[in-house]
Amino acid sequence: MTNKRFQILQLLGLLLLALLISFNTFAAANLPKHSPVPGGIAVIVLPSSTQPPTAFYRGNRVLVTGSQQTGWYAITGIALKATPGTHHIQLGDAQKIAFNVKPKTYKEQRITLTNKRQVNPAPMDLERIGREKKVMVAAFKHWNDQLTPSLTLLKPVQGPYSSPFGLKRFFNDQPRNPHSGLDIAAAEGSPIQAPAKAIVTATGDYFFNGKTILLDHGQGLISMYCHLSEINVAKGDIVNTKDIIGQVGKTGRVTGPHLHWSVSLNNARINPFLLMSDKPDILESSE
Ligand SMILES: [Zn+2]
Asked: 181 CA to middle of ligand 1, Å?
């Protein structure tokens, strides 16, 4: 082989390598950022196979994305109450894949409510709260193979982020569940758009969450919209990205009009910023 031919071959080889690297980067770019903390997402590489593997985490089926060429990834939601340390996802009956959940400290938020019944509900309210919780948990646990979930969500309403995800909350100085969603402040009546294609799985007027919509984006990716003034969809409707589903309001336990937006993977509420393309940096770090 002449020296020149060798050089050309070498150049072609380098070109091929560059192409392969950019292809892999492109494939990885469609995945959410690996953020293995309570309220975060663990992106776990699964063994290669022709069909997408079936994975479970803490009894809930996990969203799996990828292909035989790019490899399969389990997009695993980690609950806010998860204990840092070694966790596992289950593949089939015998195979387990370990991953490490790192600690994360969220800030505190203290809210004063004048409606004492919203802090310490009456016995008759507790029955209603229990009933409504069942509907919401069933929606969050729902598994639907019909839709291929989009791993990029649009901001559902225009307005400033008024309360970040994960805050440890105290209502009238009493500790309550952490903030399992993201609040966006907007005037009453502002339109709320679907952040991705989905099926409406539940709507209702709930004690704490007020007028609420639950959307199923497929494979356990669920989103919830609370405190609305108007609901423009009904259970069973299919909504496309940017369809108007309702309007911002101040129904339920609120101090003013805003949208409370929860995003859930495998029944774990996660930071919606992790799936948003236009997230701001300002509320990102709460460590
Ligand atoms: Zn909220």
From this structure: 5
